[in-house]
Every structure is written in C-alpha cells, then in structure tokens.
Amino acid sequence: MTQDELKQKVAAAALDYVKDIPLIGVGTGSTVNYFIKMLADYKSTIEGAVSSSVGTSERLKKVGIPVLDLNEVGTLDIYIDGADEINPRKQLIKGGGGALTREKIIAAASKKFVCIADGSKCVDVLGKFPLPIEVIPMARSYVAREMVKMGGQPVWRENFVTDNHNHILDVHNLDILDPIELEKTINDITGVVCVGLFAMRPADVILVSQGDEIKSW
Ligand code: 5RP
Fold first, then answer.
1. How is domain 131-196 classified at the architecture level of CATH?
2. Confidence of residue 42 (pLDDT cuts 50, 70, 90)
C-alpha cells in the first residue's frame, strides 16, 4: 500500500468515532483531508465542526459542514487530527503543516483526541522530525538562540506565515527523552506562541494504519 492509501485507510477508521456526534473538532494535514472528504456522507448527523486552520475550514465548507467558533461551542466531545511523530505514550510532535497553535487549543478543549496516522509516524523517542515552534515574528532570532543553548538546530521556515500571522522555527537534532519537561521549558521562553510537542495533553486514542491492519491504543 502507498502512504496515501494508508492515510485514506486510517481516515476511514476514524469515521466510527464521529458517528452520532453533532459537534466535532477537525485538525489539519493530508490525512485529515481524506477524513474531511469522507465526512460528506455524515452531513445529516454532523451539525458543525471547529476547525484548526483556514485550509481545513475551506475544505469543511466545501463538503457542506458548517464551521463553528470554539468560543460559541465550548467543550467538544471529539477531536480528530494527524501527527508528524507518535510515541508509545501517545505523545506527539505536530505542526508540520504549521497549524499547531489552533490544533493545541482544540485538543485542550476536547474530551477525546483521536490521532490518525500511517505507520511511518510511530517512533520510540520523539525528535527525529524537526520540532515546530510558532513564534512572534520579532522574537524569532531570540527564540532560535535559546534553542541552540538547548542543543537544537533551529531553521526558520522561510516564506511561511501561520494563520495567526506568526513565524515557525523547525528545531532539528533534539533527542526528546522527557517530552513533558521540554514542552514546559519551551513554553516558558518569551516570544514562543506554541510548541508542537503534545505531551502535557497527549492523544487519548491512536489509530495507525500498517499494511492491512489498523492498530489502536
Ligand atoms: C499540521 C499537523 C499535521 O497533523 C501533521 O503535519 C501531519 O500531517 P499529514 O497528515 O499531512 O502527514 O500537525 O500542523
């Protein structure tokens, strides 16, 4: 199976989790894009969705699902999103698509976060995938220097601006042995808007497509 076929397969598996749930949270990325296309068949049961990015909002509207403001909705029963890396403790690196801040907000406001991915995303130790950090533009160099002090190699994602009008640093070479501690430390750096480590609030359910199988834990 190709990686795209694996993404489609796991996206289909996530549909079981949204049956009969009127309000859902929807993440960002190519795996979630397949899920959104499939949601077209659930239009009658889904009243609306809270979206994690401008791109996802456009896709949701295209399949006829109203996009709602999280402030109006309150707590969500379920949030479906992808990931760039997943460890056995359901902790994640996210933000490859640059939507990490809104994704983290929706995950925080959701009772159940179901993470969908193809098997290539599973790792024992997070950090091979460069860790995305959303920063206030004027703080970019300062935050980059702080990350160098921590042993990372930050690379500015040039020609990219987030939906919140901020910049992204992708930090290479971090061996993330204590994800919760690192998330807290990076959160404390002035100028950081959000770090793409989802460790303090990990996923609740992981669905991974591997060959013909869907593994879940
Ligand atoms: C976007 C994300 C995505 O969930 C992550 O990049 C995975 O994307 P894909 O499904 O395209 O592999 O965090 O900010």
1. 2-Layer Sandwich (3.30)
2. confident
Q: Which CATH number fits the domain 3-123+200-216, given the four candidates 3.40.720.10, 3.40.190.10, 3.40.50.1360, 1.10.1740.10? A: 3.40.50.1360
Q: Which two tokens stand for residue 8?
A: 């489609």
The answer to whether the predicted template modeling score (pTM) of the entire model surpasses 0.95 is yes
- Judge if ipTM > 0.95: yes
pLDDT tens, 94-149?
999 999 999 999 999 999 999 999 999 999 999 999 999 999 999 999 999 999 99
- Binding region for substrate: 28-31, 81-84, 94-97, 121
Domain-by-domain residue ranges, the chain?
3-123+200-216, 131-196
Question: Does the beta carbon of 83 lie inside 6 Å of ligand 1?
Answer: yes
- Positive or negative torsion for Cα 91, 11, 37, 112: negative
Distance between Cα 55 and ligand 1 center (Å): 12
Count of C-beta atoms within a 10 Å radius of residue 163? 18
Q: Strands of 92-93's sheet, edge to edge? A: 85-86, 92-93, 197-198
